[in-house]
Amino acid sequence: MEPRIQYAQTADGVSIAFWTLGDGAPLVEMPTIPVSHIQMEWQIPEWRRWYEPLARTRTVVRYDCRGAGLSDRDVSDFSLEAQLLDLQAVVDRLPHDKLALLAPIHAGPVAIAYAARHPERVSHLCLWHSWARTRDAASSPQFAALARLRNTDWEMYSETVAHTLLGWSEGEPAHRYAELMRECIAPETLNRALAAFASFDVADLLPELKVPTLVLHRRELSWLSADVARGLASRIPDARLAFLEGGSGAGFLGDTDAVLRTLHGFLGEAEEPAVWTEPLAADALRTILFTDVEGSTALTQRLGDAAAREVLRVHERIVREALRAHGALDVKALGDGFMASFSSATRALECAIAIQRASAEHNQTADEPTKVRVGLNAGEPIAEEKDLYGTAVNLAARIAARAEGGEVLASDVVRQLVAGKRFLFRDRGAVELRGFEDPVRLYEVRWEE
After folding, report:
1. Is residue 277 part of a domain?
2. How many domains does the chain have?
3. Could you tell me the residue range of the domain that residue 134 belongs to?
4. Which pTM does this prediction carry?
5. Is residue 275 part of a domain?
6. Residue 212 belongs to a domain with what CATH number?
7. CB 382: neighbour CB atoms within 10 A?
8. Is 194 left (phi over 0), alpha (psi -120 to 50) or beta?
9. Which single residue of 58, 91, 294, 349 could bond 405 by disulfide (Cβ 3.0 to 4.6 Å)?
10. What is the maximum alpha-carbon separation in the chain?
11. What are the φ and ψ backbone dihedral angles of 11, each rounded to 5 degrees?
């Protein structure tokens, strides 16, 4: 059922259209200012399928910015302060004291400013393909080319923006988004808004942010450099940086499941990552993942207990975030490593790759880099008293022990379960593992770019 449109009044008298969907703590998904039309976007199937899983655990809040969609269009002020008034008007209508913000593209500086001013209201800040200073993005050749086209051919401009933003492979969804653009805002209004956005600069507020922050960026994005995401995350205290696969600027296109898992994992960070809902069925197939830090004993001897513990704590955070984001079902800490199980071999492998990529990203600037071994096997483990036992578990542990730091090794069972899923494997041959009579064939999972 289509959400009911409501209106909020800003302090400067502008009517802002918004809707809510679901129950629970609010997640305010800010508009891709200055383009939004909350009624038309609901008619786009891919967009609608994006909101529905978010609304299972949260109250999703969506609003039209001033000058666009169903909000007042006869406005002239598009400054940062004006955008903050739009957000504040909607927030004031929500019954909860705290909310999470998901801010895409131009909305990023607005969300950063709001979170800096109202840390008591913001539980989480998620920045999607965004920045603190507009000039950091405006230097892109694509942005400059689009600016020239905007003043010559409005229809061609809207089609080009839609395909550039959403991805050139996204034919019909991009065309529908171009139609939404032409319907939701006039060219003259768009020009005034973008001229105002050019001066947005909240870089000085970044070190002051006191809310958990996640910076999301797709690796193959053509119109915004990954360096912008790295620079943004590096200036926010304790910010998490998540690089995802794909080139679409829209979370509802491409590998949407990966985006949703990352968001759910971050928003649920206060919850226990291990979920033991019911005993395993006797024939339940699980993919078992083990991690281990290479050389952790030598690290402790060299640095001392306290300093080594600080280094390993970063590793634990990286692994726990990846486990949450990829839906690990059973998680157990094992000294300097973890054991986890997954109902999906695909998610287990994606999690292993995410752990290695996040570790490699951290090691680029770490004083004490750490290398992680990851091993995977699949089978039918036995569950007793919130723990897993059996041959499938033992073999996964032996495979992890066989890996080198920075490697992901998997059994042939795992490789066959994900056949056709575009994972890259290198045959490491049959090897002898302690406790197993017959040699076991292992495969290295290629995770590097």
Report:
1. no
2. 2
3. 6-267
4. 0.63
5. no
6. 3.40.50.1820
7. 15
8. alpha
9. 294
10. 77
11. -65, -25
Each residue of 79-99: pLDDT tens digit?
999 999 999 999 999 988 899
Which residue is listed with tokens 């002051």? 208
Structure tokens at 357: 């990529």
- Which residues lie across from 103 on neighbouring strands? 127
234 with 296, same domain: the answer is: no
**Strand-strand pairing, 440-445 and 408-411:** antiparallel
Which of 233, 267, 301 corresponds to the end of one domain? Answer: 267
Measure the CA–CA gap between 200 and 109, rounded to whole angstroms: 7
- What are the structure tokens assigned to 128, written together? 């999607």
223-277 confidence digits (pLDDT tens): 888 999 999 999 999 898 999 888 888 888 888 888 988 898 888 743 333 343 3
Tell the burial category of 300 from Cβ atoms under 10 Å away from its Cβ (0-12, 13-18, 19+).
Answer: middle
C-alpha distances in Å from residue 195, one per residue of 69, 78, 80, 134, 228: 19, 9, 12, 11, 21
Which residues are bridge partners to 266 per DSSP? Answer: none
How far is residue 216's CA from residue 354's CA, in Å, rounded to a whole number? 13
Does residue 238 share a domain with residue 313?
no
* Dihedral sign, Cα of residue 226, residue 229, residue 231, residue 237: negative
194 and 342 both lie in a single domain: no
Q: Which two tokens stand for residue 156?
A: 């061609």
Judgement on whether residues 250 and 291 belong to the same structural domain of the protein: no
Residues in the chain: 449
Q: What angle do CA 424, 261, 285 make, to 5 degrees?
A: 65
- b/e per residue, 401-410, with b = 16+ CB within 10 A? ebbebbbbbb
